[in-house]
Structure formats: structure tokens, C-alpha cells
Amino acid sequence: NAGVTQTPKFQVLKTGQSMTLQCAQDMNHEYMSWYRQDPGMGLRLIHYSVGAGITDQGEVPNGYNVSRSTTEDFPLRLLSAAPSQTSVYFCASSYSAGGPIGELFFGEGSRLTVL
Amino acid sequence: GEDVEQSLFLSVREGDSSVINCTYTDSSSTYLYWYKQEPGAGLQLLTYIFSNMDMKQDQRLTVLLNKKDKHLSLRIADTQTGDSAIYFCAEKNSGAGSYQLTFGKGTKLSVIP
Description:
The structure holds two protein chains of two kinds. Chain A is built from no helices and eleven strands. By secondary structure, chain A is mainly β. In chain A, the strands form two sheets. In chain A, strands 2, 4, 5, 6, 9, 10 and 11 form a seven-stranded mixed beta sheet that branches. In chain A, strands 1-3-8-7 form a four-stranded antiparallel beta sheet, with no helix packed on it. Chain B is an all-beta fold. At the A-B interface, strand 5 of A face strand 4 and strand 5 of B.
């Protein structure tokens, strides 16, 4: 059972470089989201999507872009990386955006370092 | 806006009970959750409670909800070294278009053998 798969697991970038963090889920979940986790800050929502073709901003969207062309995939793009984007990034999905339980299934995380 | 607060650290001896506390501000919360994060891994749902319940028990886990004080707790009985992890409290509210969970900063539980 693959669940939510994130790649890469580790990445080092130089300031100003761009990259895409990939996220794929095989559970036919409508809802997908990206969080970043920083020490002492907990989890903060970056962007989310309630279905293919629909995306919206979360708490900390600046510096990140997303798209949702298929139900399965939800890539997160950093257009010009900054040291403040050094973090652990988690992709999470749920079967229904406004569903009764709203359990989130998380990927294993992508650790990004921006020098 | 919604806010979820929890203490950052808890240390207990193996075999004792652990109690992790959480307070939240959103009175329209529908579901409250406890997630567990083991080192180097993503979060996994441990248990949840619907807002019209006071208590939920699941094997070694007991969740207590005090809606008046907006206080949620997670009790782990007979704590084991494998319970060492970060525990996140989260809430989901019932507002229109509300798709998000609001997470606390997490409580790091250390179990002393």
C-alpha cells in the first residue's frame, strides 16, 4: 500500500534555485495539502486543493506555487529558494475535503535545506 | 482565528501513565484529533473525538474532552518506550468551506526506561 508518496526525501538547494517537491497519492483522495514543519512552530499549511483543477492558499503561501492537474498528484514548486524555506515539508491527503472525519494521511516528508 | 496550544515536552517513566493536554479556542470545532509523529516520519492519526462526546477509549488510549473549558487530553496507560514520539493535537471546525485542520505545536513525549 503506497498511500502518500513524496519525493525527494532530502534536497539541498542554493539561494535562488528552483525545484519541485512531488506528491502522489493512490487512495483517490479529493483533498490534498502541503505543510511545512519548523522547530517550535508546529505544522503550517502552505497550499491545499479540494479537487483536480482547484487550489487555494493556506497560512504561509508566499514563495510557493501548486497545481492540481490530476486527482493523484499535487506538486509544490519553489520558484526562487530562500534560506527561510529550509524546512521539512509534508504532503497530506484526505478522502473528502469537508467530510465528517477529515482524517489526514501524511507522506514521510521532504527535508529541504537552502544555503 | 483558531488557535491550538499544548505544552512542548513531557517525560514519564516506562509503565506510568502519560497525560498530554491541549487547549483550543474555536468553539465551533466538530472533530478534535491526536496525531503521533515518530522520528523521521510523517504524522499518523492516533485517535479522534467528535465534539458532542466527553470521552473516548481505545485500548491504552483515553481521550477526554471538556467543551466548556475547550480542553482536550490524551492519556496513555502503561506507557512504553515505543510511545516516545511527538503528539499533535488538531481541530477541525464546521465553518463553511472549512477544509483545514489547525494543529498545535506538538508535545514531545520522552519515555524513560
